[in-house]
Amino acid sequence: MLTLEQAVLKLQNGEVVIIPTETVYGLAASIFNDNAINKIFSLKKRPFYNPLIAHIGNIKDLQKIAKNIPKKAWKVISIFFPGSLTIVLEKQNYISNLITAGKNTIAVRMPNHPITLELINKVGHPIVAPSANLFGYLSPTSSRNAKKAIPELKFSILDGGECNVGIESTIIGLTKDHRFTLLRYGAIPVEEIEYILNEKLIIHNKLNNKDIFPGMLGKHYSPKSNLILCEDLHKTILINSRKKIGILSFKEKINSPLVHTQVILSKDGNFIEAAKNFFSALYLLDSLQLDIILSTKFPNFGLGNSLNDRLLRASSST
Ligand code: TXA
Ligand code: MG
After folding, report:
1. Ligand 1, closest atom to CA 50?
2. pTM of the model as a whole
3. Measured in angstroms, how far is the CA atom of residue 262 from the centroid of ligand 2?
4. Mean pLDDT in consecutive groups of 10 residues from the start of the chain, 318 residues
5. Residue 239 C-alpha to ligand 2 middle, in angstroms?
6. What is the torsional sign of CA 207, 86, 274, 196?
7. CA torsion angle 36 98 315 286 (round to 10)
8. What is the atom index within ligand 1 of the atom nearest the CA of 106?
9. For residues 157 and 151, what is the distance between their CA atoms, to the nearest angstrom?
10. Is the bond preceding residue 223 a cis peptide, omega within 30 degrees?
């Protein structure tokens, strides 16, 4: 494990470091070092068409990386920064095309974690950080799982404890005519953003969007074990009775001798607690050599939608 000072030096020297944030652990590099950014893509086995999120340590950093920021965006920034909301803005010309996958926009957020903020401010400029997992696999929410996910960096981890939020930031963008669009469900519920902005978000999905937004890709966030999202859990358990079954449930306890292991995300049915436990529960289940992991959908409002988005993609076959 690194001290904060060691992590700062590594980032300034063009190395990649695993860092904590309030959402999930990140794989960080200096925003101005293409060499280090290239290393992120190779460590993650991430395709270059998938752009990275810039992380700032203070609001002043924003104009170093984004320009022509519309008034409406400033409102979002003043309310949600620091926090688990990412906004896509027009990029400054000198921001590397590697970060933005050749787009003229850059995704930015200001993480709400004291260690991350201190780190970025000591580095002296923003960093880029995708989640610290192999492309398509589960995001880590503890240094232990980050080490499992990217073992090559086991000596380059800055530990910030367990992530408080547990799922990735919500991503929004602005259309040319200045309407907000949702680009990824995440830690801040859509309803909360709509309430605060007093405006409905345009919700992109595979069905109504021809432009590919990688945050809206199919299979993602997946465990190695086969995850099945079922309508009728009890029936699915019976059908698979010869298999070694794991269950990921929101609040319900299943009493069945056919189930090998069960993880309940929140006994009280609390979305915030469920989100916090979500990825660590999947890491745990995925370490047990189960034949299948069964889960059911969350109620479809608030963070339930963000969790369903991850479950759907974790269980998707394409
Ligand atoms: O909570 C989070 O956002 C975490 C922590 C580490 O901050 N980061 C994270 O990064 O989830 P990553 O790389 O795993 O996901 C970034 C998503 C990608 O799906 C990418 O397509 C989208 O952000 N994205 C980045 N830049 C974009 C842009 N200019 N336009 C549209 N989408 C963008
Ligand atoms: Mg990710």
Report:
1. 21
2. 0.95
3. 25
4. 98 98 98 98 96 98 96 96 98 98 97 98 98 96 98 98 98 94 97 95 64 57 90 95 97 96 98 98 97 96 96 82
5. 33
6. negative
7. 0
8. 29
9. 10
10. no
